[in-house]
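Note to self: keep these together.
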Amino acid sequence: MIRLPSADAFTGRISPLWRGLAAILLLCGLTLALVESRARILRSGTEVRLATAPVDPRDLFRGDYVILNYKISTLDTAKLDGDKAFERNQPVFVSVAPGVDGLAEAKGVYLARPAAAAGGSVLEGRVTSIGACVTNANGDPDCSAGRRAIRVSYGLESYFVPQGTGRAIETTEHKRLEIVAAVSSSGQAAIKRLLIDGKLVHQEPPY
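Structure:
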């Protein structure tokens, strides 16, 4: 019977220096792949304008990260197309289209990715809670109207800003704050620009 050398025997012949270099190169390669993946979304993704919604002021600003909430974060499934039964941590796809003000409005939420409507986009998200309070036209929670909504995160809920510049964002009324996200064809999204009163405050570099 032919015996193949074990992996331990093979790696034992490689000096610790070369093993260390190989590990460093592997980590660098993985990091570059992640950076390039995000940069590709920012370069070629479809731009979607997102209206923000109120967030707990105690959590709005943590260090150099702005904590964000969106109108499309809370979805009243009874008023939307698509599936109706969801579970926590379940991946979902949210179909959006620009409203009369140009800001994205949710049109449907699905367990399987639907085709994007003309002029619209599909964002991939994950259900963070079920049985949430629905929201009113301003994006404020309204529990008196029922708790049939689901909460969805899109990976857009925190945004790094230069040190010392977060105070203006922290004290800004959510109605004045707008996020422009880039959405890839697969539904992955990344924050591209942050605006207050329609004026650019921060723009994410491509790398």
